[in-house]
Amino acid sequence: MTVNAELVASLRVPPGPVDLTAIKTHVAPGFDGGKEDGKAALYALGPELADLQERLFAEGRSGGNRSVLLVLQGMDTSGKGGTLRSTVGLMDPQGVRITSFKAPTPEELEQDFLWRITRALPEPGYVGVFDRSHYEDVLIARVRSLAPPEELERRYDAINRFEADLVANGTTVVKCMLHISPEEQKKRLLARLDDETKHWKYNPGDVDEREQWPAYREAYEIAIERTNTEAAPWHVVPGDKKWYRNLAIGHLLLDTLHRMALQWPKADFDVVEEKRRLTDEDPLS
Amino acid sequence: MTVNAELVASLRVPPGPVDLTAIKTHVAPGFDGGKEDGKAALYALGPELADLQERLFAEGRSGGNRSVLLVLQGMDTSGKGGTLRSTVGLMDPQGVRITSFKAPTPEELEQDFLWRITRALPEPGYVGVFDRSHYEDVLIARVRSLAPPEELERRYDAINRFEADLVANGTTVVKCMLHISPEEQKKRLLARLDDETKHWKYNPGDVDEREQWPAYREAYEIAIERTNTEAAPWHVVPGDKKWYRNLAIGHLLLDTLHRMALQWPKADFDVVEEKRRLTDEDPLS
């Protein structure tokens, strides 16, 4: 049991109004050490994370209905991709389902906003990861007025009902906002411009969104407050230090899997009889 | 460039009739060294594999249409899952799409056998991996007479047309049969029975399939011969040594990505202007 409970607890958003300006972005709560220690600590979580994930996968193959859904939200450059590579990459890819949500297609826009989300939910035994999610429908949708106010209003409650149903049906929902400062984003955007191998990640539209930073902050604060339920609580992960962000989400995943008390499934066949079939009756040896 | 060309060439099945009994399962062609060397060599491929995969992903995000499809076939315990964990796991999970094909559902059975395959194809920029595939429809389907002979006959040609279309549309198809001996399978099945944490992987039905080993061998030989096209050739990977199997598929993936001559996409925006926007016009600093 290598979960860092203090670290995990520090990420959890308490109920009530949310003030993101009061949550520091460049800190490393619950961890004493620097970048190299943090990377080593993440790497050290690998075996236990992989073991628990395999138990979950095994349970799913044996008739269990439980799964995990990790929701990653954050401004451009906040590190959703890096988290997928460094932390989610510690798990067996066989049991992971990543979905990256882009702007909805015309087909998706004809449906309720949760339609495409439902289609991407993890099957039993899987760890699903959403790189952006249904929260875009109350974030960019609010900032850019992509839906009328009463529809936005309806969505918070719809999300809460949707997530409560998910949890009731066996999916543990872990929601993370990767929290960076506007200064850090500027640094990262400039670094992308300075490196030809990173130009493909840069989109001039990201700067237009950046200009709406205060409006996005407000949209996040409202969304987190309105959907920070007991069933599916929010975490805000300080994200200016990439190594800390990766480590924090590693601990959060490990903590989530630990709480599920995953056991290896019992054999639903006669082990002794199967051994006999393979040794005494085998036509090939 | 760390591709082992000799190793890769040794896996390629030459055109013409296939005799699997003549291909050794416990060997390590093209690699001088033992288990620990092999594991280290695989690990050493990681950075180059990740770099090329990221270029492919970048290309896909920038309007390119190319992708890779790795097809894994083999008898039970031949190591499809281990390959996913150890070799496919070296790549960024963000750019990988794994599909495990089970027995077709009633809905799938109502459609052509390629229907569910088409739905699982990798999007541009992705490395798709099939854990079992449309080849089951000429393997178990042949051994267990799940389709009439004329339908089986039709399928080989349908597969060749399907794969040729895929290749013409930008997908590089890499087909691998993981080749183990019946003795090795017996050892692995018994090991699963001896370990309570592996009981979930054991299915008494696997022994029923094992009893059809000669029929499966013949079905593989026919399928490989009939679908070993220039566009989408077959590889047989000696699989008794797990470390060699993982390393061989690592080299095969690396070789595949190398041949694609992947370049970082050029910026489709004015880099200087974007820097100016971020520094001179930024309202947040």
From TrEMBL, chains A, B:
Gene3D superfamilies, A to Z: P-loop containing nucleotide triphosphate hydrolases (3.40.50.300)
Tell me which UniProt keywords the record has, alphabetically. Answer: Kinase, Transferase
InterPro entries found in the cross-reference section: P-loop_NTPase, Polyphosphate_phosphotransfera, PPK2-rel_1, PPK2-related
Give this protein's Gene Ontology molecular function annotations. polyphosphate kinase activity
The Polyphosphate kinase-2-related domain covers which part of the protein?
35-261
Kinase as a keyword?
yes
Pfam families, per database record: PPK2
- GO biological process assignments: polyphosphate metabolic process
Q: Which PANTHER family match?
A: POLYPHOSPHATE:AMP PHOSPHOTRANSFERASE (PTHR34383:SF3), POLYPHOSPHATE:AMP PHOSPHOTRANSFERASE-RELATED (PTHR34383)
State what protein this is by name.
Phosphate--nucleotide phosphotransferase
Q: Which organism is it from?
A: Nocardioides silvaticus
